[in-house]
Amino acid sequence: MSRKEELLDRFKSKPRDFRWDEFVSLMGHLGYQEQTGSGSRRKFINRSTGHVISMHKPHPSEILKSYQIKQVISALEDEGAI
User: What's the pTM?
Assistant: First the structure.
């Protein structure tokens, strides 16, 4: 199983300890590039489709909130990326 598949399976299981660096890596594997905004605002833009996912980088912890994971899974499924 590749790193991409492992990260995707882990992400889809909605873990309570999914870190920001894992998320950025997963999004890169899926063709998305991180773009920083003001403060903790981040956009992930798919280079080939132009699809955009916007969210806040979690702080002070680096762990994604469960609602963030659910929203991203839904957006990626709607886009056909997963």
Answer: 0.91
